[in-house]
Structure formats: C-alpha cells, structure tokens
Design brief:
The chain is of the alpha/beta class. It contains 9 helices and 13 strands. It has helices at 25-36, 138-151, 168-181, 198-205, 220-228, 278-284, 286-292, 309-315, 321-367, and strands at 40-48, 51-56, 59-64, 82-85, 93-98, 104-108, 116-121, 125-131, 154-160, 187-189, 209-213, 253-256, 262-265. It has a 6-stranded mixed sheet with strand order 10-9-8-11-13-12, with helices on both faces. Strands 1-2-3-5-4 form a 5-stranded mixed beta barrel. Strands 6-7 form a two-stranded antiparallel ribbon. The longest helix is centred in the last third of the chain and has 47 residues, at 321-367. 36% of the residues are buried.
Length: 373
C-alpha cells in the first residue's frame, strides 16, 4: 500500500506561536515554574506609565506592572522582556514576574544620582544608526559601540541616508572610516528612500532580536518602516540647518520583521552616557589595549611615561592621536560613573544597616517592655 507524502503524519511539531517573537527552548525551560502556576508567557512589546503591552500566544495583552516595580531601576520591566502574565479572565491582568535577561542595553541617566537606564532587554544585535546628512562623528560611534559590546549584543553600524552621498568613492571612504573604529563590526550603508543596502541589513537582523539606536534625526523610524515593510512608525522631516530632528518615537516598541527576527525601535538619544562599560571600551579599542600590554608600567596612562608602547605607536603614525584621546575620555567617564555608583551603593548599604539596627533595638526594647506604642 502506498501513501502520498501528504498523508504521512509529520514528526516535526508546529512552531510555538511566540517563535517569531524570539521564543525558544531556553525560554520554555525558564518559564516552566510559571506554567505550573497557570501563568502565560509573553514578550513585552511596549511599556507606558505602569502598564505594558505583552504579546502572547492568544494576542496582545494590556497588563498592569504593579508586581514588577522593584526599587532597582535596572530591574524594571522593559521592552524585550519575557514575562509571566495572568491568564484571561482577570481585570486588570498583571505581569507577575519577568524571566532573567540574557542581555540588556544600558546607559547612564542624566540625573545626578548616577543611575542606569535600561533601553532594551534580550537583544542579539545592537543596530547603531548614523546619519550621513551631517558630519561623521567617530567619537560618538565609539561611544555607542562600547555600550553595545557591554550589553552582550553584536553591534552593527548602519550609515543611513546614503543617497545624500551620491559619489560611490566618497561613500566607500566613509564606510572605511567607520570600519577603522569598529573592529569586528559589520558596517552597512543604507538608503531607506531607494532601498539601497536594505537586503544586506535585513539578512543581518533576520535572526534574533535587534535594537535600533541613534540620535534624533538619524533616520531610525524611516529605517524601521523600511525593514517592517509598512509605515508602523511616525516620521518627521529633519532640520536643514543641523540635520537634527525631533523625537518622532517616544516609546520603545518591539516589531516583528517579515523576513524573520524582531526589531526594537527606540527614541532618539540626546545623551549616551556609559554605564559600567569598561569591558565594552576595551573591546572597541582592542588595538590600544594590545599595545598597552608592552608598556613598561602596567598602570601606564600613555602620556609622558618612559617606554610607553601606545605613545610610540602614535609617534610612528600607526595609531591616530584622536583614537587615543577618545579612549582616554571614555575610560575617565566610565571610571567616574563606576565610582559614583559604588558610592551610592555604599550609602544605601549604610542606610539599610542603620534601619535594621534601629529596628533591632526597637524590637529588643519592646521585648523588655521599655518601648510602647
């Protein structure tokens, strides 16, 4: 008896409904304890004022985040998180827990408290959008790269609005310039207007989760629309005088891409402060750290110390002075933020000790009958 191929039962199970949003066997295993409690898995696609949108197997759920609001700002719910959500029936429905993050893109806030701000969670690729409508700022590219490497994601630099550089040779030189400060990082020139380079970028971000980063006016929303294949993000014209734009994206949104993968679009960043990114800085400036291993002093500042291999490379023309200055600047900034963070943590620990000490004394006095309320 013969069977047609269509009548033979398939041994391959159908994909999980959330697979297109990044669900895999690892997340399945992490979620098992919550599944036993009857909670549903979902991915946070948007966060807004105490509530968030979570995509589940049954559709998007508008959930309350009351139970996932810790004191630590680094642990608040964020776009890209995987969450355990109440099943249907409750009103409101709550996010009960967040799964441990695999990666997180974090910058320091502009506040004097020196706190970190998480911009996206569980990201595989950090797509750094750099507009060719303005003069190329290699120092800013290096700053973004340091944060990207520190996050655990693979950076990708996208030079947007490449149609504004019609000369192919000039565009090639710009790509090479960025490549010199981005070792091990793909650099792609893209014109969302004409579709140039989009196929290359789509292939790079077609697997996993990507976060789209850049300053206002870098063309992120236009690029997101081009990758999604629909006008899902608002776009505004930039100013001719300086190439800058207003914040057309005001929240972080997670979008499924038609060719695979998901994209998190973010608001334009005016400030990109480092946050405990020493490892990321070292990776961006790997050639300097390799040279520093041959300096006479292990704590060499690469300024006027004798037998400094880094200064020797600069004097020989093998290392640009600008590159060394950028390295020093980012290291100093990172050291300051780490010192402030350590001081804040020490202050919090002291406050906890005092509070616990006061509570302990009060409990003792109550037990001895010396303290009454």
């Amino acid at each position: 008896m013969k069977f047609s191929s269509s009548s033979v039962p398939s041994s391959v199970p159908p994909p999980h409904p959330l697979a297109r949003h990044g669900w895999d066997d690892g997340w399945e295993a992490e979620f098992a304890p919550y599944a036993e409690r009857g909670l549903l898995p979902g991915r946070v696609v948007r966060v807004d004022r105490g509530r968030c949108d979570v995509v589940t197997a049954g559709g998007v759920v508008h959930a309350d985040t009351e139970f996932v609001v810790p004191r630590d700002p680094m642990k608040v719910v964020c776009t890209g998180d995987w969450a355990a959500v109440d099943p249907a029936g409750g009103d409101p429905r709550y996010v009960r827990a967040l799964l441990p993050r695999r990666t997180a893109f974090v910058r320091s806030t502009s506040s004097k408290r020196s706190e970190g701000q998480i911009l996206a969670a569980n990201v595989d690729h950090a797509v750094i959008a750099v507009s060719l409508a303005v003069e190329l700022d290699l120092g800013r590219v290096e700053r973004f790269l340091a944060l990207a490497w520190e996050s655990g994601a693979q950076p990708v630099v996208v030079l947007t609005k490449s149609d504004l550089t019609p000369d192919a040779t000039g565009l090639s030189h710009l790509v090479q310039d960025v490549g010199t400060v981005a070792p091990g990082v793909p650099v792609v020139a893209v014109s969302a207007l004409y579709g140039d380079g989009l196929d290359v970028l789509a292939a790079l971000v077609g697997d996993g989760t990507s976060v789209l980063l850049g300053t206002s006016g870098a063309g992120k929303s236009t690029l997101a629309n081009a990758l999604v294949g629909a006008d899902v993000m608002d776009v505004q014209a930039i100013r001719d005088v300086d190439g800058k734009g207003r914040h057309t994206t005001t929240t972080r949104n997670l979008l499924a891409l038609p060719g695979g993968g998901v994209l998190i679009d973010t608001p334009g960043l005016r400030g990109v402060g480092l946050w405990d990114a020493g490892g990321g800085v070292g990776q961006v400036f790997a050639e300097i750290e390799e040279l520093a291993a041959d300096c006479r002093f292990h704590d060499c500042a690469h300024e006027a110390e004798p037998h400094c291999a880094v200064r020797a490379a600069v004097d020989a023309g093998d290392l640009p002075e600008r590159r060394l200055e950028s390295y020093r600047k980012l290291l100093r900034e990172n050291q300051r933020i780490v010192a402030k963070t350590d001081a804040r943590l020490r202050a919090e620990i002291r406050r906890d000790w005092k509070r616990k000490g006061a509570e302990g004394r009060a409990a003792k006095e109550m037990k001895e009958g010396r303290l009454r309320f």
